[in-house]
From TrEMBL:
Species this chain originates from: Nocardioides euryhalodurans
An example molecular function term from Gene Ontology annotations: hexosyltransferase activity
Protein name, entry field: Glycosyltransferase family 1 protein
Entries under InterPro entries matching the protein: Glyco_trans_1, Glyco_trans_4-like_N, Glycosyltransferase_grp1
Keywords: Glycosyltransferase, Transferase
Domain Glycosyltransferase subfamily 4-like N-terminal: 14-176
Cross-referenced PANTHER family: SULFOQUINOVOSYL TRANSFERASE SQD2
Amino acid sequence: MRVAIVTESFLPQVNGVANSVRHVAEQLVRQGHQPLVVAPGHGPDHYLGIPVTRVRSVGLPGYRAFPLGLPDAALERALADFGPDVVHLASPIVVGAAGLRAARRLGVPTVAVYQTDIAGFARQYGVRAEVLLDRWVGRLHRKADRTLVPSHSSYRQLAALGVPDLHLWRRGVSLDLFDPSRRDQERHATLSHDGRDVLVGYVGRLAAEKQVRRLAEIAGIPGTRLVVVGEGPERSWLGRHLPGAHFSGQLGGTHLATAFASLDVFVHPGTSETFCQTVQEAQASGVPVVAAAAGGPLDLVEHGRTGLLFDPEDRFSLWRTVTAAVRDADLRSRMAAAAHAKVQDRTWPIVVEDLVERHYRAVLDQRRLAIA
């Protein structure tokens, strides 16, 4: 099957959309399919032998390192030349909208993957346009042949916007990379002052939409040391307000997996996550999770069993919840074991096979019936 993946973000960007596209493209090749990636911004024109067509972009205001794609005639030419069976729209907003129009003109079925709460994203940067952005997102997904959502929260959100033919499709996790065996006791001892402190960590982009400034609320919990892994526009603010924290910078591969597994508690404070891949990676790493009781984490964390959820509307709930995890080593151990067991059937090969066999083939069959 020839699959054109039109995405709002791809390498060298490191974020949930780019990483998901990378994994999907890799697995498509391994399962005998031919993908093409169409993405904004500068970067490689091939990835592991997979062709990548680049379209125009501008830097996102307030986050110049993030390229925002622009409509580009190169996109439709690339799709026409490639001749896809299916167009996969990864978190469609601007480039995805152009990809949707091109696919419809070419008569190619589309599968749209909802991944970014764009209204919530914009709100964190001071842009108050929730109604307009939700209307735009709803309009795009109503025109796609099928929409895949990562969580029940996202399902309800798009259903309220009148989007039909919604299907739950979660992300995979690289169990060969994220695993408790990656824990580095020497690293842990160094950061925790020879085990005197519990390592409480955040892993991800240091950006406003992740609400990382809330980490300041837990920086003073006795007997803990905060570890921050990642880079982004909020790095300087965090550096000023978390003087005792250890900043690892952006990590990847085995270095990232080791940083995850060497934590004692993983914290994600954001409330706008449609899924929250880092929660799943922490669980695969055998690290207990504390996350906001909002969005994607509600599907990933069973409170008290596979992690803890805090009330984001209660200004003291994050502190209380992290403190409860820090003070109870047995609770941490039980939650880590239960969460690790729960993610064992969420590998990328399984997830992408489901994408192809259950979703790509469904829209192809629908198109054939319509033509007949």
